[in-house]
């Protein structure tokens, strides 16, 4: 494909990236917590995860399920680290992480839950939300993260669909 024909692809992806910021600026007004400054960064992560998962619907579902499992793992870590293990001080959270990560890695053997990178990215986004959003709760963090995850997965699907249609069109010319 010539550079002249290829240029449409980066422009298309740039337009999509810009539009995700528009959606974020509109969406953050209606997604808890009220007054947040947006979570487009979660959508961009999920968009990338869609590509890592194979650029298809099955990969998108595996990514979404990975985010759900990452949220669950994060909640378990936080509950254990600040609850049952709190008396261990410095070692409370390292022990909680250690104990939760073992069954998470076993999910490699469970169909549909085997996309471990999405679990870690989902957990990281949840930890970031809980750490840096004032008055965050598990429910609000999970709901918001999953809304933006789905948004990113939709953008992944649209990107692949539009690029595929464009490449098919120019291959005929």
TrEMBL record:
Protein's UniProt name: DUF1097 domain-containing protein
Domain of life of the source: Bacteria
Parts of the chain that traverse the membrane: 38-57, 64-82, 88-107, 114-133, 145-166
Keywords from the UniProt entry: Membrane, Transmembrane, Transmembrane helix
Any Pfam family hit: DUF1097
């Amino acid at each position: 494909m010539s550079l002249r024909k290829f240029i449409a692809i980066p422009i298309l992806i740039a337009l999509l990236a810009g539009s995700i910021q528009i959606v974020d600026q509109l969406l953050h007004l209606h997604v808890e917590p009220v007054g947040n400054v947006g979570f487009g960064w979660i959508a961009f992560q999920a968009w990338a995860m869609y590509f890592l998962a194979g650029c298809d619907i099955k990969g998108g579902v595996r990514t979404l399920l990975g985010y759900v499992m990452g949220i669950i793992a994060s909640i378990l870590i936080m509950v254990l680290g600040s609850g049952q293990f709190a008396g261990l001080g410095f070692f409370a959270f390292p022990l909680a992480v250690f104990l939760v990560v073992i069954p998470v890695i076993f999910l490699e053997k469970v169909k549909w839950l085997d996309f471990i990178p999405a679990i870690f990215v989902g957990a990281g986004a949840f930890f970031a939300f809980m750490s840096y959003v004032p008055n965050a709760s598990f429910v609000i963090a999970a709901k918001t993260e999953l809304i933006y995850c789905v948004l990113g997965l939709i953008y992944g699907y649209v990107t692949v669909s539009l690029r595929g249609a464009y490449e098919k069109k120019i291959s005929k010319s």
